[in-house]
Design goal:
- The protein has about 290 residues and is α+β, with helices and mostly antiparallel strands.
- The protein folds into 2 domains: about 170 residues, BirA Bifunctional Protein, domain 2, CATH 3.30.930; about 90 residues, no CATH class.
- Strands 2-4-5-3-1-6 form a 6-stranded mixed β-sheet.
- Strand 4 and strand 5 form a beta hairpin.
- Helix 1 packs across helix 2.
Length: about 290
């Protein structure tokens, strides 16, 4: 049975789903009936499932579910929850809808595992032509101690449905050539991406020259963040994104150089590319 995965946005949220707080989203999800529904049902919430990791158990209560998903990682910046939708194809025969919801139910926990969600809940809606379920999770990776990394690359992989044995990919492949406008947009994006990488390389050279001029000792991400906090930086450089609000080093610290942000992992990776087999700078510091 074919299905797709999507993230609700202003462009594709269809029936007016809120894009505000977790509580408002869950209020919408648990709403028994929605005006203008395609299928008249007594309760559009067909089932609720989830694993809240010790913060309670899944119930149809927006306040309790919002608290369970948002608490425990308030000191991290960024959104506290993430929201995805897994939807089957529209127009399924009535006899196949029950099977579709069963497949969706069995896929909910597999989706949580695929994105690394420790606390999550899912609710299925039966008032549309497309059998689907909403997936909400705490935006926190307990093992890594940081926000979940739901990147475009991960989302593209989720569309393959390789993470579940119960569904097949319903993402259609392009069969026609892109329009002239589409090709122009793609070319402009490519130029912008090349320009970004060129700027990053310039910033890497500036940081390398600065470390050489200061005869900085060999160090890793955390050591470099601590060292830069103590140093006087050149004009136009900012000591931002080095420390979290708790005072600890960020998982992947960065520095702003002439308005361009540079993550230290990008800096060290550039050294390893230039010097294969070298995992860290030598004891003599950053003199290459």
């Amino acid at each position: 049975m074919k299905a797709i995965v999507r993230i609700p946005t202003k462009k594709n949220r269809g029936g007016g789903e809120p894009t505000g707080s977790t509580f408002k989203r869950l209020m919408y999800i648990f709403m028994p009936q929605k005006p203008g529904a395609v299928r008249p049902v007594d309760d559009r919430v067909l089932w609720v499932a989830g694993d809240l990791g010790g913060y309670g158990y899944p119930v149809r209560d927006a306040r309790l579910m919002a608290e369970a998903l948002e608490c425990g990682h308030e000191h991290f910046s960024g959104r506290r929850t993430r929201h995805l939708i897994v939807s089957c194809a529209a127009g399924l025969p009535e006899v196949q809808r029950a099977e579709a919801f069963g497949r969706l139910y069995n896929s909910a926990s597999l989706l949580a595992k695929a994105i690394g969600a420790d606390r999550w809940m899912a609710a299925a809606h039966d008032d549309t032509d497309c059998p689907h379920f909403h997936f909400a999770c705490a935006n926190f990776d307990k093992k890594k101690g940081r926000r979940l990394d739901i990147s475009p690359k991960l989302l593209k992989w989720l569309q393959t449905m390789d993470w579940t044995i119960h569904l097949e990919s319903g993402k259609r492949k392009r069969t026609k050539r892109k329009s002239k406008r589409g090709m122009a947009i793609e070319a402009a994006r490519d130029r912008e991406e090349k320009g970004r990488w060129a700027n990053k390389n310039i910033v890497i050279e500036k940081l390398r020259d600065f470390l050489n001029s200061k005869r900085a000792p060999a160090m890793g991400n955390d050591d470099l963040a601590d060292w830069l906090m103590r140093e006087d930086l050149p004009p136009g450089w900012e000591k931002r994104k080095l420390k979290a609000k708790s005072g600890k080093n960020r998982f992947d610290p960065a520095i702003i150089i002439d308005g361009e942000g540079l993550k230290f992992s990008r800096f060290f990776n550039s050294l390893r590319i230039e010097m294969p087999g070298i995992q860290q700078p030598s004891e003599g510091g950053f003199n290459y």
